[in-house]
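Hi there, hope your week has been kind to you so far. Do you reckon you could talk me through the fold, stretch by stretch? I've dropped the whole record in just underneath, so have a look:
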Amino acid sequence: MEANTLEKQHTEQDFMPINGTDYVELYVGNSLQAAHYYKTAFGFQSLAHAGLATGLKDRESYVVVQDKIRLVLTSPLKSGTTIGKHIDQHGDGVKVVALWVEDATQAYNTAMEKGARSYQEPITEEDTNGKVVRAGIYTYGETVHMFVERKDYNGTFLPGFTKWETPDYNPAPTGLKYVDHMVGNVGWNKMNHWVNFYEQVMGFKNILSFDDNDISTEYTALMSKVMSNGNGRIKFPINEPAEGKKKSQVEEYLDFYEGEGVQHIAVATDDIIKTVRDLRSRGVEFLRVPDTYYDVVTDRVGEIDEDIAPLKELGILVDRDDEGYLLQIFTKPVEPRPTMFFEIIQRKGAQSFGKGNFKALFEAIEREQELRGTLH
C-alpha cells in the first residue's frame, strides 16, 4: 500500500508528463554513410530525409528507424556552420534527445519558469499531414532536450522531411525495440548539479545512486545517479569521474569529447542472444569480460532461463535485483574517438542497471584504454 501511495504521489507531482523518447539526433561528419552504417550493422530501416531536395541549404538529415527507435543523422553542407563546429569540437555524437509530449509549449514554458536555458522557443511546423510543435532546452554540455508534440500529425516523421525509401537495400532488423535509457557524462563535481536540474526543471526523481565504492576497480572509479521521469519511460543515468590511481573512462570521454555529453544509448531487445549474434555477424564489436566471469555467474545471480554457454560465447553479462534479472552487453565506441557507444539490454523483471557487473565491465574498458594508451 505504501509503495502504491508513493507512486501515486509521484504521478500527481509529475508536472512534465513525457510519453517516451521521440528521436535521438546525432551530428555526424557524413550523414549518408552513417545511415548506411546503422542500417547495415544495427538493422535500422530507411524512414525519412531532409536536405537540398526538400529546400534546406545548410544540412542533410537521414532518419532511420527500428521499432520505436528513431535516429536522425545530420551533417552540414558548408564550412563554418554551427553543426560543423559542433562536430569539429566533439566528433560525431548526440546533439538532441527529443522527448514526446502532449503539449510542447507547456513543457517548454514550465521548464523555463523553473530555470532552464532556452535552445528553441516553440515553433509550429506544418505540411499536408498536419502540424508538429517543437521547443527545446539545453541540458549538460551542448546537449539539447527537444519537446515534440505530434498529436495533430500523421506524416512519416516531421514536416520538412520526405519519405526516404531504399527499395534495393533494407537489411533485416536485429530485434532492437526501444531506448531503455541514455547515459550522460558530466564534469568533476557536476553530477549533483545536473541531478538537481532534472529534479527541479523536469520533475524527475533520483531512483538509484552509485558511489565510487560501487563503481571502482584497482585503478579507476566513477559515481553515478539515475534520474527517471514520473511514468518511468525516460531514464537518464548521470556519471561523473571520481579519484582513482589512473584516468577513468569518464575522464577519457570528457577529454576526447571535449566536454559533457551522451556517453551511451541503451536499447532494449526481447532476445539478447539472437540480437547479439546478429549484430556480431554484421561487424558490431563488443567489449569482452574474462571467461572466468561465467564460472561464478550462477552463484551470484541464481537460476536464469538462458544457458550459460551462449552467454559466455557472446560475452553477455547477467545481474539480478529484487524484481528479477537482466542481461546486458556493451559495444566498443562507434566513433573514431573513444566516446559514444551502445548498450544492448534485455530485462527479465529487473529495473536496475547491472551494478553486479560494474567491476568486470570497467576492467574490460580499462583493457581497451590500455590499448589506446589513455590509461595513465
User: Anything to note?
Assistant: The chain has ten helices and 17 strands. The mean pLDDT is 93.
